[in-house]
């Protein structure tokens, strides 16, 4: 039987949480991309549980779930360090949703020391359960301007954002030495270990500024409220990007809207092309 080798393999971390939902939306997104661009690229989407599986990936999604459990399982199964290498040393495209955003933060508060480890990669501090407990889940219809240029539907069409015990980005941290030590000294705060980017391209990506991609404001209409949702801040940061690492507080995987997956896969493709060009230039030096 002929084995088809994918041109690009994208993984979803499958230790806990909503991983199969992401795989499904990735498939939908790849089909949408094929239609839109007519590029007959073979995408491979895999569930990632081992360092070997991770090594095959050009990009990775870390799903929503429970960040403490995910980090414990990752540490126990020996994939935590390879994940840090993937995100911070090789700087491959990574996207974290909800618990995934927590794991990608360089600092997370409301966390017992020793109870949780972070991967890091985004120079931000997240507040873990900012939007309350499980029963305080809510949905909000937001326009996500970053989808504008590439999405198949218009950017004005709101995206249904599902928040479940969702974190918020409470601070954008400077990309400077010593920040982690400062953060570590705060109460109930854990930080990710620092790593050195593996080459010039990774260094360039890591040094990019954190961009705020979406906020939730007082005026956002909540579509469904299980409970009255109190909004502590005026504008809460709920999506950020730093180069090719992206994180959002909500769960796109719990909707049937593949627009963010389409946008993200386009980014993975661009990053893979950049990496190829960089390696080629390096070899011909
Ligand atoms: N706040 C949760 C955590 O700490 C994340 C919730 C979620 O992914 N729905 O992991």
UniProtKB/TrEMBL annotation:
* A cellular component term, taken from the record's GO annotations: glutaminase complex
- Protein's recorded name: glutaminase
Would I find Hydrolase among this entry's keywords?
yes
Gene Ontology process terms (BP): pyridoxal phosphate biosynthetic process; pyridoxine metabolic process
Signal peptide positions (record): none
Listed A to Z, the keywords are: Glutamine amidotransferase, Hydrolase, Lyase, Transferase
Q: What is its EC number?
A: 3.5.1.2
- Source organism: Didymella exigua CBS 183.55
Q: What is the lineage of its organism?
A: Eukaryota, Fungi, Dikarya, Ascomycota, Pezizomycotina
Q: Name one Pfam family in it.
A: SNO
The UniProt entry, under InterPro entries, shows: Class_I_gatase-like, PdxT/SNO, PdxT/SNO_CS
């Amino acid at each position: 039987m002929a084995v088809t080798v994918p041109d690009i393999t994208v993984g979803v971390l499958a230790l806990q949480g909503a991983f199969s939902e992401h795989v499904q939306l990735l498939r939908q997104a790849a089909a949408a991309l094929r239609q839109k661009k007519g590029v007959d690229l073979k995408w491979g989407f895999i569930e990632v549980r081992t360092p070997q599986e991770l090594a095959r990936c050009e990009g990775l999604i870390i799903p929503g779930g429970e960040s403490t459990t995910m980090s414990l399982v990752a540490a126990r199964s020996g994939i935590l360090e390879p994940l840090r290498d993937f995100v911070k040393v090789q700087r491959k495209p990574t996207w974290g949703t909800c618990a995934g955003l927590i794991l990608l933060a360089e600092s997370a508060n409301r966390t017992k020391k020793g109870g949780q480890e972070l991967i890091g990669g985004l120079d931000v501090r997240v507040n873990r359960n900012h939007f309350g407990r499980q029963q305080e889940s809510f949905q909000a219809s937001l326009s996500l301007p970053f989808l504008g240029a590439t999405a198949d539907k218009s950017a004005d069409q709101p995206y249904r954002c599902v928040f479940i015990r969702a974190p918020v980005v409470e601070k954008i941290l400077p990309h400077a030495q010593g920040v982690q030590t400062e953060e570590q000294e705060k109460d109930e705060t854990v930080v990710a270990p620092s790593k050195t980017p593996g080459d010039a391209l990774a260094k360039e990506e890591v040094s990019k500024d954190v961009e705020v991609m979406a906020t939730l404001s007082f005026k956002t209409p909540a579509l469904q409220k299980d409970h009255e949702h109190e909004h502590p801040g005026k504008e809460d940061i709920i999506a950020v990007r730093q180069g090719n690492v992206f994180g959002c507080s909500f769960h796109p995987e719990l909707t049937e809207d593949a627009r963010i997956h389409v946008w993200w896969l386009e980014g993975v493709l661009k990053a893979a092309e950049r990496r190829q060009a960089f390696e080629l230039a390096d070899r011909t030096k």
